[in-house]
Amino acid sequence: MPATPLAIETARLTRYEGTQRSVAGVSLVVPQGVLLGLLGPPGAGKSTLIKLLAGRLRPSSGAGAVLGHDLWRERPAIRARTGVVDAVPPLVGGLSLRANLRLLATFRRHGWAASVDVVLRQVDLAQRADVLAREASCADRWRLAVAAALLHQPRLLFLDEPTLDLDPAGAAAVRQVLRRLHAEGLTVVLASQQVQEVEQLCTHVALLRAGHLLTYGPIETLLAGEDSLLITAEPLPIVAAVAARFGYDATPAGHGVLRIAATPEAAPGLVAALVSAGARVFEVTPQRRSLAQRLPELAEPCAR
Length: 304
What we know:
With 304 residues, the protein is of the alpha/beta class.
């Protein structure tokens, strides 16, 4: 039985715009079924990388494949199997969202495999499909853009900062759509400059800066070992001794408080052992380090 191809595989993928290198030797191995966040500030190369991976731009050098199709020789096949959402398409204000989607479908070069009503349901627009485009919210328009990208039933969906200019409610609505699409098995690649968005939404992250890939991997793996417990108790020597018996480091974290390098899941067993050893435990506070806190360390080893 043939192996399932990777969603994305690149080796030193590079793109020059004139003399400016916008993507600089990016090597990625991305399995199918992930929700990958391309994280970086403006000018990091996120948009150009998406265009390369979606077959819209030709690389200057390097190699790669998307869904098993070569980035140099099979760009039409890649375009037929991927969807790209990088802007809200022009809409006719006097037509409903459903009518606009039908109009957009007629211009899709890769055909119209899914029905308009099906993709409207996929993006949570079924109840607002008869709203005129001129009366639609920005979040509605972005979700319609996602619906248009789903018409040919792609296996991989690229999005370029769809929530950047939305209000909190609109951004939440778009993110909910992406969560559902990912849960239904679609591989999703999201470009974003919002660290919290990537941490909350994505399974994997690729950190980009000035065209360079600094770090890539599952978010869970990148944050592994960063959990701790703040334990307020007395006497502290007993807390330190019990922590050492469990194999956890303990460091002072304030008056009457020790920071124990343990996960929140370890708290019940640790507290039981502390009480059994004669300690009085007043408070246990789990501490989870965020992706934002880890970014400087993740970027530093590969800083250029």
